[in-house]
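hi got a favour to ask and not much time before my train. below you get a single protein, a line of residues and a line of whole numbers that encode the local backbone shape. could you go over both lines and see whether the tokens make sense for that sequence. a few lines back from you is plenty, here it is:
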Amino acid sequence: MGTPMTVDVEDTVAAIATAPGNAARGIVRVSGREALACVARCCSPGTRAQLEHSEVSHRFPAIFQTAPPISEVPVDLFVWPTERSFSRQPTVEIHAIGSAPLLGAILRAVCDAGARLARPGEFTLRSFLAGRLDLAQAEAVLGVIDAANQAELRVALEQAAGGLSGVIEGLRQRLLELLAHLEAGMDFVDEDIQFIEQEHLQSELTSIRTQLTDLEIRFRDRGQGAGTPRVVLRGAPNVGKSSLFNALADGGKALVSDASGTTRDYLVQQIESEGVMFQLIDTAGVEEAVQDPLVVSVQTAMQTQWSSSHLELFCLDATREPSEWERSQLSATSLIPRMVVWTKADLTLPVGVRPDAVVTSSQTGLGLGSLKSAVAERLNQANSVRGEVVSCTAARCRGSLRGATQRISAALPWVAAAAGEELIAVEVRAALDEIGQIVGAVYTDDILDQIFSRFCIGK
């Protein structure tokens, strides 16, 4: 498809709108400013008069004239002369017997009368540009067409009905309201007027970030599609990740040593628990402020494995208090679901165990069965929320959700420091732009090309 914004979206286009193959009924759709006139040129004088004077949506039978040898075809015309059509343009659907040669003859006649062949997805593109639906709903149309089972069809229909769009629009409106208060404060900076309290601003931004993070996780899981879930062991060096990996894998091959940083690569082991298969991944310990190119490469590989996983097992050493970095990780919102696991509990029991943590020992087997069961339960819960968006929406929008989350995260320290509305407003505006890309409030020609070029002609 050509660049959508360079196409004249007001000219008249036509296409066969039903699937290939014989059927009791087939449809040729015509839409654009001259749609009624193009169809009228192919019909009898009486039908032409009806079309020329159409003011409301209606249906009536007609005789459609095509080139020989078919010549005359009995059809039903469904007419939308106003913006109440799908594309918000004058539209005519020509319903006839679903014969491929017959529908092809009707399409050629309409094009000879002044229409051009529609490009893939052009009818839905016009509907989007006219504000009839947003980008997420447009992609749901493609999801309906491509649905391989009832579950995928249900997801696509719910998204087409605006389920996802309502959630995103709700977040946009909340951010717009916060931005309005911030900008009002900047306009009246010399006045002793507080348009929004710091506590409320921080609470709202934190809540919005949490919702965005949850959406990103669901989008990422849907975009990854079917496959074995990935569970990654993560934590500081020498907290017992490799020993735990070997214990859970019933004798895995991870190297174990008291020396920090023994693991320099990652290992993967397939594990089954309570009917759930998953891949357990052992990674290098997280090291901060490193300069060694080898260590930087190892840390990059670790981060890649973590970001592509479905569940994180964040490991803490029960023999010592959590470090400042570990405490900061526990207090921050993780981009993927997280379970906290205490290791080395054969040496000492941890102090102040979190209620959601699992206490384990790779030496005695303490807690290993409970950990496997907990992992299986969490993965089953994740499966119940996957698929809440069609896959093409998930693939397109994960980056926007991540960008919006990062912008909100960047704004929160400024709020806590009461650093001024200008800095906070910059981040909120950027987050709004990222969210706007999901529903098409902000878009580029490349985004439209990417979406609508996947549609079949006639949709």
Observations:
- Residues 4-132 form a domain with the Gyrase A; domain 2 fold (CATH 3.30.1360.120).
- The chain has 15 helices and twelve strands.
- Confidence is low (pLDDT under 50) at residues 1-5, 255-264.
